[in-house]
Automatic annotation (TrEMBL):
The keyword rRNA-binding does not apply. PANTHER family: SPORE COAT PROTEIN I. GO terms for cellular component: endospore-forming forespore. NCBIfam families: spore_CotS. The keyword Transmembrane does not apply. Residues 34-257 form the Aminoglycoside phosphotransferase domain. This is CotS family spore coat protein. InterPro entries: Aminoglycoside_PTrfase, CotS-like, Kinase-like_dom_sf, Spore_coat_CotS.
Amino acid sequence: MEGIFMYIRPEQIAEQYEMEVKSISKGRDCFLCETDLGMRALKEYRGSVERAEFLAGMLDFLKEQNIVAEQIFYTKEGEIFARDEEEQNYLLLSVFRGAECDTKSREDMVYAVRLLAGLHNATEQYPDEVPEFVKMNPNALLLLYEKHNRELRQVRNYIRGRKQKNEFEEMFMRQFAGFFEKAQAVTEQLQNMEICEELTGFCHGDYNQHNVVFSREGVAVVNFLNFSYQIRVSDLSNFVRKMMEKNNWNTSLGMELIGAYDSVRKLKPQELSYLYFYLAYPEKFWKIANHYSQSHKAWLSGRNTEKLSKVITQEGAREHFLQTLAGKVENRI
């Protein structure tokens, strides 16, 4: 019975739009609808009406700027949301069929960062006032890293109090001091940084290989639902970090990606400094520790130990990359 309900619900939502639905299937975090107007995606959305309408307007603006990006469609009643019987809101978005950015292809990755720089250039031309509810706290990164540091200490204290430690816990305790020292160093440097208004702007919010699609319509950027208005290099740092983790922190690749972005949108000295701080924080070490903290400790899988071991193994290559990036920062300043 539950399966029938799950099938009926997206149909009822889709009926609220001016389109003829041919079939509906379950996609990644959405319902994929094959329609007479092409493929569409129904996605749950928990934000406000104002936030959704701002995003729809920004996506329309990006289209005018020749950026291939998803679009949001309004219902028959002119509403930004459709609602199911449980009052859950949904957005209807366009879908691009194609291959995601290949994390083993330098050509794909370089194209993706150039595209990101072009997207940031385009949003700088946005003519309307940016509403306050979109803007993030200027000190958001500092506050985030201070929170991460507290969480790392909590995990350390918990494990230290355990009499019998498993393999993961022993490994974590051996590595904690070194990684935490780096985390603290980045946080302390951020405390001395001043954020200029010119560093902030519209950000995708989750720019990664999954959200860059090489389609027939062009190379498209999708999944803007986590968009924000903050320091622009947060997008670049997120993408570069993910690509570097996939490629053993290859220094030449990392510098090529940063250079490719810089060739389209010139990075200011302070932006380079922030990029360094984003990448210097041991994010992956914190992420593994946080997953451990949220999990049932007795059921901890060997996969966590493998991930921690990989982070430790890659740290030398990561440090080499960061030293090279630091040199670029100093030269630009």
